[in-house]
Design goal:
Elements: H1 3-21, H2 38-48, H3 53-66, H4 70-74, H5 78-85, H6 92-108, H7 116-120, H8 127-138, H9 147-156, H10 167-177, H11 183-196, E1 236-246, E2 249-254, E3 265-266, E4 287-288, E5 293-296, E6 301-310, E7 322-325, H12 336-352
Parallel strand pairs: 1-6
Antiparallel strand pairs: 1-2, 2-3, 2-7, 4-6, 5-6
């Protein structure tokens, strides 16, 4: 079979499968229907970065009830958005989300640009998100490659170059099989195939609509693709965190806008390094939690040693912050690390009482 004919067959077979088996997701239009709402497509794509569909679903529902349009989101308070985002991780996405919404309202009269180049010019919109929104929301032919698509393409063509070096070749092959028509449906069909059939482990090749054209099926181990380079061990860092309690409230700070967990409410903490500064933020009698709170970020693993104290009304920590009711700590929108740190303090206090 000629290459061009094979490429067309891949697209045709996959779209036929998608028409019957497409996942029903709240941000999607049905197969073959009019293009989906650009706001909902963009919001879902930002949320789905480094996160699963199952995890995103409840957040997406709450967001679209609270902020049903890009205009509503653009008018929201930074702190409200960050609190609503807590738990999705990668908090720079939340800051970019708000910046992008405000740019769409301010510079584009509340309408998302309908081309990849126009979308790429928006704050926080990278190549993948621009391609996905252009294809899914506006029907543009765009090459959309996420982790699921990457895996499907690497197997279809049995690409032996290890990741990440293989990504240029994978994108070229994805470009080759992307059709002119129904590019949005094709992109979503590839995502669905990777998420439900061509999975990382134990791919269900027997029910795959592309099995006849898949080079990896002819090997002894389709799951060996994409080939991955050996993982490097993540460096370990240490840190100290402080729980300052007063009259049923705990002192929370706002982390700097730039950097990890930027703009989020959090417990005061030291730098995170091999030799962190252990100087507490106030002079008091401190109790140290025996077991550090372990947390893994993208580029390093952290062991955060927690210390807690109870102070009187005459003690005021330096810097900007707020006394937050301990009974409502779950509403503060603190990142997962600090939610776990708060739980570690609570358990330590209970054990000592």
């Amino acid at each position: 079979m000629r290459v061009e004919a094979r490429d067309r067959k891949i697209a045709s077979d996959l779209l036929a499968h998608y028409d019957v088996h497409a996942r029903r997701l709240p941000w999607r239009a049905p197969p073959g229907a009019n293009a989906a709402d650009p706001y909902r497509v963009w919001l879902s794509e930002v949320m789905l970065q480094q996160t699963t569909v199952a995890a995103v679903g409840p957040y997406f529902a709450k967001f679209t009830v609270r902020w049903p349009s890009v205009q509503h989101l653009a008018a929201s308070e930074d702190a409200d958005l960050m609190a609503a985002w807590a738990g999705l991780g990668y908090y720079a996405r939340a800051r970019n989300l708000l910046a992008c919404a405000r740019a769409v309202v301010r510079d584009h009269d509340g309408r998302f640009p309908d081309t990849e180049d126009g979308l790429r010019a928006l704050p926080g919109v990278g190549a993948y998100t621009a391609a996905a929104v252009a294809a899914i929301a506006f029907g543009r032919r765009a090459v959309v490659v996420d982790a699921n698509v990457e895996r499907v393409v690497a197997r279809l063509f049995a690409i032996e170059t290890p990741l990440p070096a293989a990504r240029t070749e994978i994108r070229a092959m994805a470009d080759r099989i992307t059709p002119e028509a129904r590019a949005g449906d094709f992109a979503q069909a590839m995502m669905d195939l990777g998420a439900t059939i061509c999975t990382s482990r134990n791919p269900a090749c027997g029910i795959c609509p592309l099995r006849q054209d898949c080079a990896a099926v002819l090997t002894a181990d389709p799951a060996a693709f994409p080939v991955k380079a050996a993982k490097k061990a993540k460096p370990h860092r240490l840190g100290h965190g402080w729980w300052i309690e007063r009259d049923g409230h705990v002192w929370l700070i706002r982390r700097p806008d730039k950097g990890l967990l930027g703009g989020m409410r959090a417990l005061p903490s030291s730098d995170w390094s091999a030799t962190p500064d252990a100087t507490p933020p106030v002079a008091a009698g401190w109790t140290t939690v025996d077991e550090p709170v372990a947390h893994v970020f993208t580029h390093f693993a952290l062991a955060l040693t927690m210390h807690h104290t109870h102070v009187g009304a005459d003690v005021a920590p330096e810097g900007e912050g707020e006394w937050w009711p301990i009974a409502r700590i779950g509403e503060a929108g603190v990142p997962t690390l600090f939610a776990r740190a708060a739980e570690a303090v609570r358990k330590d206090k209970d054990a000592r009482d």
